[in-house]
Amino acid sequence: QPTITFDNVVFGYDQDRTILHGLSFHVPVGGHIAIVGPSGAGKSTIARLLFRFYDPWSGRILIDGQDISEVTQASVRAAIGIVPQDSVLFNDTVGYNIAYGRAGATDEDVLAAAQGAAILPFIEKLPQGFDTEVGERGLKLSGGEKQRVAIARTLVKNPPILVLDEATSALDSRTEQDILDTLHRVSENRTSLSIAHRLSTIADADEILVLNEGRMAEKGSHSALLERR
Ligand code: ADP
Ligand code: ADP
């Protein structure tokens, strides 16, 4: 079970503008940490650094005690599953969209992932099941259905770490609650980092970090943070 450590991470996209000003935090084995903060605070930047889309200017990012700048980007990405806010589906079959997350996924892998994401009953009712075309030229999925396909695509990799980047913020509140329940279940035996706008969507987190202008403004449990407000 991996852990995530940000150790005094400094980063910016352009030389003249620092986005993260020496950020440190730790996600313990199997822990669930959430990061909240206003738009532009640097939350998604944390996810991008964790994926090694960029390397920090200084400081270190460790996964399982290993500095990620010393391992291949592919192996870093293999350990992490991300559920983004707006999942983009390919104009292809549901099955292809799920299997895409893992080279060489078998039918069993895809089935198990669909089950984990609680979208199997929906898929089984489709005229061609997993072979149903979705996207622009095929079946139009609702926001919630798309997110479930995205969750299945992530689960097919069976990643020990989950990053949820505002994974429900584009959904209506009823659908949001359903997807939150599923995400809660699939996070149970994994280490997770949730990026969120609203405190209400991360009530389950062990610890919440409040980010403001690239600095840690506060941290604490959900109830402790609510009390201070
Ligand atoms: P959040 O996720 O908290 O809304 P982001 O991490 O997306 O914030 O962005 C933090 C800051 O970095 C913002 O000011 C944003 O404009 C800037 N930023 C994000 N992506 C880029 C980029 N690719 N190039 C330059 N600046 C960027
Ligand atoms: P690959 O060649 O391995 O498919 P990708 O860059 O397409 O590499 O994706 C690797 C992982 O990074 C996938 O889990 C995907 O969901 C995630 N990913 C791709 N683009 C982004 C992005 N812009 N922000 C966050 N995660 C992303």
Structure description:
With 229 residues, the protein is an alpha/beta fold. The chain has eight helices and ten strands. The strands form two sheets. The protein has a six-stranded mixed sheet. A four-stranded antiparallel sheet has the order 2-1-4-5, with helices on one face. α7 links the parallel β7 and β8 (191-196). α4 (107-116) packs across α6 and α6 (143-155) packs parallel to α7. It is globular and about 50 Å long. The mean pLDDT is 93. It binds adenosine-5'-diphosphate (2 copies). One adenosine-5'-diphosphate binds at residues 13, 19, 37, 39-45. One adenosine-5'-diphosphate (ADP) binds next to α1.
Question: Short description, anyone?
Answer:
With 229 residues, this protein is an alpha/beta fold.
Strand content: 15-25%
Structural class: alpha/beta
Shape: globular
CA radius of gyration is: 18 Å
Mean pLDDT across residues:
93
pLDDT < 50 stretches: none
Molecules bound to protein: adenosine-5'-diphosphate
What is the makeup of the main sheet?
A: 6 strands, mixed
Q: How many separate helices? A: 8
Side by side, the strands of the main sheet go 6-7-8-3-9-10
Based on DSSP secondary structure assignment, what is the total number of beta strands?
A: 10
| Estimated helix fraction | 25-40%
* Amino-to-carboxy terminus distance: 34 Å
SSE string, helices as H and strands as E: EEEHEEHEHHHHEHEEEH
Keywords: ATP-binding, Membrane, Nucleotide-binding, Transmembrane, Transmembrane helix, Transport
Protein name: ATP-binding cassette domain-containing protein
Domain ABC transporter: 4-229
GO molecular function: ABC-type transporter activity; ATP binding; ATP hydrolysis activity
